[in-house]
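Holo prediction — zinc ion.
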Amino acid sequence: MSLKYFLLLMATLASTMVYPQGRFDNVNIKTTQVNGQVYMLEGAGGNIMLWITEEGVLMVDSQFAPLSDKIKTAINDLTDQPIIYLVNTHHHGDHTGGNAQFNDAQATLIAHQNVYKRLQADGKETGFLPESTIEDSAMLEMASDEIILIHLENAHTDGDSFVYLPRYNVLHTGDMFFNGRYPFIDLQSGGSIDGYIKAQETMLELINPSTNIIPGHGALGSFENLGESVKMLRELKSKISLAIEEKRTRDEVINDSSLTKYYDDLGFGNGYIDGVKIRTTLYDGLYRSSGQ
Ligand SMILES: [Zn+2]
């Protein structure tokens, strides 16, 4: 199979993905108060952040469409205020699937311009698509407080933004952080190993030890947890870069569980990305940038 055909096939599969009926039936939405009127909602897919004010609600990411009614119920349990800002941290379906359900007349849907491009290329229509796009960064205001959006290049994808609430010291990282787990780095959508590490370093510089972090996936996290993630990635990067320098083959690296054993044992491989998958991604991403 040619690479071009393979990529086309993958793109087709992704856009026609149908969820088996019942997949979301047993999913419950768990609400956690993070700080003041800032909440994290967990269901299936990417974690949602809500910030509730007397002027309206900020919602970050929208999980999957079949969960929208349950998410609306969870929001209604907290407030009657309308959503006025809906932000997508990137284009993946587990963060944008509910867009059209939450993007009503009062809401403005905001994301990086590459999110718009990718969703549009995927056939998504008005309502699902961002109505306002950012290039590098944006600052929004709600109830006289700031919402900071910053795009970081070629990290998890080519359209990632994190969202930071200075007053509450809460950061939503999007999928630039999987708490306690190996991350998915989407090399097919412009993600890169070095960009991912740099993104985590950039976020660590901006925040402080008392920041609460809503990761794309995993439990509510801390400065320390994000620090552990970047340390893990730097260590695995150096091990796998060395294997590439030593001309070890792709199969050898993928099958060598000793390369990731330390973090596998800590449970980093228990999520969506296991030891084999992270070794594959690191090999492919680093091999590409090694120029070999
Ligand atoms: Zn993602």
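READOUT: The CA atoms of residues 170 and 212 lie 5 Å apart.
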